[in-house]
């Protein structure tokens, strides 16, 4: 009622309030239904005044005529329009706005009228047309919904049915009589069962929805979608089981020695640098002139999948370490029988990189199972297992160190570990893509390349980039090698050329070595021990050799059937190269 009182127009405030005297005792109401109907409403209750006026008998000579203070529906709507500003910015009430779901028309209506019309539409099936709210109720489009019901009910709203004149109240009582009983809550089924608010109306005809024509059941498209969902759930379950198997496999590292005895007649293991060869394996690498290899003299077989990385034993090169996508790491003899000495097992996914420390007593393996492992070269024992949250794309020891190494990862970081402390000691986080290579130019400086097509230089143990090298035409460089004189960096670029950078100033040289194809493969690039030749594998199974000084292509050696992704020059030989390819073979060329 406060909302209705506040909704009065200015003319109502100016008009004097008419006092309503109590009705005479001998003048009963025309349609007295209950005691509540004969109560005298307070003077400010405009709605009850309207009800009193509707039930009052015709005025006599002594009756007091009560004038309605509450405006009619049309008057309220007209008064509401007076609230619209008249500064020229108002819009027409009938203006139509088109939206994605239909049209929207602007109108002004009090909250009471809106709730009243909403309730009327829900119960009686019709309501006043908001577009014609100001017009007369006799207009053709004055109502929306069931217009026949609106005509039969005289356009009465729910408020008028509950508190209107005698005819509207009679219609309300008749409507209530048509409602079925709620039933007994203690009866579940049968006669008198509880229906509650779901009880219908007498004479109501409920037409069940006709079933759609065609076969009953899921359509072929629905069946296909269900099968696809089931297959996806099965794959996710299998992936989870594989993950559990990987977790169980961790910590079960082992190695297999393939020889008859770990020691020779003098008690030496394969770690001893042999002295019974024609080559002095303890000399200075690169002291002899090198030549281009031409013939394959030995093939190592044992891996069942692609070779991903090969490393020679530091200084001497008498042992060969290989990592493969078959999850195995193998140690091979180079100078004697050329057989497999030991197999290291512990990774549950393919090997990404392997690396010896400075003296070769230990080595690191990084796998696609997101674990870096530290192994003892002689005994085959796994000394440490360092789980990551990403794949370690490369591992490299600090020059001259046997304990500190860096790992470039697939989550854009370079991690620095100390195996003595068994913890992470530093993080380098400036790259915007997966880190592919980490290369030391000296003991205190290193460079890194990434999928973000840039090269960055760092001071060791300081996680701040000292130089950022990038060019709009520069591509990703997945392999980098330092020249024997430590003056140049050769970087394999994914646009089928090898770029050269100064190892001191990091400026790019005008020299570029072309003539090979490495599309889609991270083919390793290397220098000959004397620095006269630059070599690289390619995607066609060749090993390509260039003259370092002239920049000309010298030879394309067909080495494997699949891409040659890794190779290494023997440090004390004049023309021997070990190659590893995606065909799972290791070959020695001379």
From TrEMBL:
It is found in: Nucleus. One of its GO terms (biological process) is mRNA splicing, via spliceosome. GO terms for cellular component: catalytic step 2 spliceosome. GO terms for molecular function: mRNA binding. WD repeats lie at residues 300-334, 344-385, 428-461, 525-556, 557-590. Residues 1-63 are annotated as: Disordered. It comes from the Eukaryota. Residues 482-569 form the Anaphase-promoting complex subunit 4-like WD40 domain. SUPFAM superfamilies: WD40 repeat-like. SMART domains: WD40. The keyword Repeat applies. Keywords: mRNA processing, mRNA splicing, Nucleus, Repeat, Spliceosome, WD repeat. This is Pre-mRNA-processing factor 17. It comes from Malassezia brasiliensis.
């Amino acid at each position: 009622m406060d909302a209705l009182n506040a909704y009065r127009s200015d003319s109502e405030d100016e008009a004097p309030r008419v006092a309503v005297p109590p009705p005479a005792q001998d003048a009963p109401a025309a349609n007295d239904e209950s005691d509540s109907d004969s109560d005298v409403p307070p003077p400010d209750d405009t709605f009850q005044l309207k009800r009193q006026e509707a039930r009052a008998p015709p005025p006599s000579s002594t009756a007091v005529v009560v004038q309605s203070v509450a405006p009619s529906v049309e008057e309220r709507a007209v008064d509401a329009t007076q609230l619209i500003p008249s500064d020229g910015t108002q819009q027409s009430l009938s203006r139509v706005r088109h939206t994605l779901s239909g049209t929207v028309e602007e109108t002004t209506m009090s909250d009471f009228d809106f709730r009243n019309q909403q309730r009327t539409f829900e119960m009686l099936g019709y309501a006043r047309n908001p577009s014609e709210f100001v017009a007369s109720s006799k207009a053709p489009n004055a109502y929306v919904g069931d217009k026949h019901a609106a005509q039969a009910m005289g356009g009465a709203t729910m408020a008028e049915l509950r508190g209107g004149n005698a005819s509207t109240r009679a219609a309300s009582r008749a409507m209530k009589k048509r409602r079925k009983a709620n039933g007994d809550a203690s009866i579940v089924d049968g006669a008198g069962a509880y229906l509650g608010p779901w009880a219908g109306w007498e004479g109501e005809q409920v037409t069940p929805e006709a079933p759609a024509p065609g076969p009953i059941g899921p359509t072929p498209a629905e069946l296909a979608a269900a099968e696809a969902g089931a297959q996806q759930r099965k794959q996710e379950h299998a992936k989870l089981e594989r993950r559990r198997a990987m977790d169980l496999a961790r910590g079960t590292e082992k190695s297999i020695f393939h020889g008859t005895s770990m020691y020779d007649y003098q008690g030496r293991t394969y770690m001893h640098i042999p002295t019974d060869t024609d080559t002095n394996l303890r000399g200075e690498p690169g002291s002899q002139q090198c030549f281009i290899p031409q013939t394959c003299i030995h093939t190592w077989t044992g891996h069942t999948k692609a070779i991903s990385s090969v490393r020679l034993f530091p200084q001497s090169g008498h042992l060969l370490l290989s990592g493969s996508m078959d999850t195995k790491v193998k140690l091979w003899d180079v100078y004697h029988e050329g057989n497999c000495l030991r197999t290291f097992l512990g990774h549950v996914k393919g090997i990404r990189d392997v690396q010896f420390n400075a003296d070769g007593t230990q080595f690191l393996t990084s796998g696609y199972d997101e674990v870096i492992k530290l192994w003892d070269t002689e005994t085959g024992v796994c000394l440490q297992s360092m789980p990551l949250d990403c794949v370690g794309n490369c591992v490299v020891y600090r020059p001259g160190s046997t304990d500190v190494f860096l790992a470039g990862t697939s989550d854009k970081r370079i991690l620095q570990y100390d195996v003595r402390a068994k913890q992470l000691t530093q993080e380098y986080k400036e790259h915007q893509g997966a880190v592919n290579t980490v290369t030391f130019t000296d003991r205190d400086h290193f460079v890194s390349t990434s999928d973000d097509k840039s090269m960055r230089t760092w001071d060791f143990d300081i996680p701040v980039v000292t130089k950022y090298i990038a060019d709009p035409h520069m591509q990703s460089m997945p392999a980098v090698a330092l020249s024997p004189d430590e003056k140049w960096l050769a970087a394999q670029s994914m646009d089928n050329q090898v770029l050269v950078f100064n190892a001191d100033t990091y400026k790019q040289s005008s020299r570029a070595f072309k003539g090979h194809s490495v599309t889609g493969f991270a083919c390793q690039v290397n220098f000959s021990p004397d620095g006269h030749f630059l070599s690289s594998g390619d995607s066609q199974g060749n090993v390509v050799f260039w003259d370092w000084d002239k920049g000309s292509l010298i030879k394309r050696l067909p080495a494997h059937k699949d891409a040659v992704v890794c190779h290494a020059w023997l440090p004390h030989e004049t023309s021997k190269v070990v190659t590893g390819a995606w065909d799972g073979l290791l070959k020695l060329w001379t």
